[in-house]
Amino acid sequence: MGYNCIHLSYEGIDAMALPPGLDRPCRGSACQGFSLVELLVIVVIFGLLACLAQPSLEAARQQSMHSTCLGRLAAIGEATAVYSAEDPNGMALPVHPLWWSSDSSIIGAYEWGGKSGIGAPGWVEGPGGDFAYLTSKFGTLAGFGPATRPLNAILYPHGFKDSATPLFDRIGATNDTKIHLDAYRCPADNGPPLAAHCPDWVANPQRSSFDHFGTSYNANLFMTSYAGGGPVNSNSPYLRPVSRVPAPARTLAYDENIGRWAWACKRENWACTQAVGLEGIDPGPTKAVRGWHGKNWTFNRAFVDAHAESQKVFIEGTSDAEGYSEHYRNELVFPDDPNTQARSVCIIIRGEGWQMDTLPDPQIRTGLLWDGSDRVS
Predict the structure, then answer these.
(1) Interatomic CA distance for residues 370 and 199, integer angstroms
(2) Does the predicted TM-score (pTM) go above 0.70?
(3) 247 or 339, which is more confident?
């Protein structure tokens, strides 16, 4: 069987009757492109569409960072539960093996996990000038490098390359500040609030918490002592067995570091400010501490029971005439220790769905001492 092939030229097509609305192929000057005006209209339309889409894209980006940050906090909470189960003392929070017993204010909050932080230079002897950050009290040369931080062994079981030496090693110490331990980095971490009780960090507002301390998150170490100094006791999960945390689902374990300053903001209850000389931080003209995820007073947090959630640290209806509000409820005295009455204040810190204290379980002696200056913890 054969096939008949029909060859049509453009002339042949022109001669054919085409359906209405279907143009014939153009030739020569009959083929016209878009005019300049038409091209400009198309460009304007695409520009308008991009402008309309930008807020949605930015919102999606922010939500992605929020979810990542919350997920990493949850993973830290779960790793901490593993640490507690394996620790001989069953501690609720990781405890670094190196203690500075003469100063309770430098332990516990950050060296439980993460990389070397470059904040607070001059803590140990070392180089000056551009390399002063190597002497940070959060870094390798001070003994708090990533190889020593206890939670790293759980979240990074296959290890990582770091300096791991207490001797002065400029290259190793520098590399330890750049190591990629992203389990401890909140992608939205863009630095400190407008003010805080941490002048080294506030003085470098472009520096993330991850770079300054080695982690974007802080642990809940809440200590008590007597006015003028003395022995330090734990009223928090830090240096406390998890079995002695009465309300693990409410008790804060970790917080986004910017949230650490929110509960101690200015104009809190008188007992926690003027009574012990803690004026709190000044949130500035806005009267608010804005979280890393774009909402005032709202921060991601992890709890002793290993769950994580986003919470607003704010008590509605407490705004005063100047616009300052309260962010927690507290009691003036410690109910189970009459000897501390009129001296021990600001030790019950609680808000909606959260608490920093571990009452009614008694305080735990830590063996640390407070010299009476600055803050206990």
Answers:
(1) 20
(2) yes
(3) 247
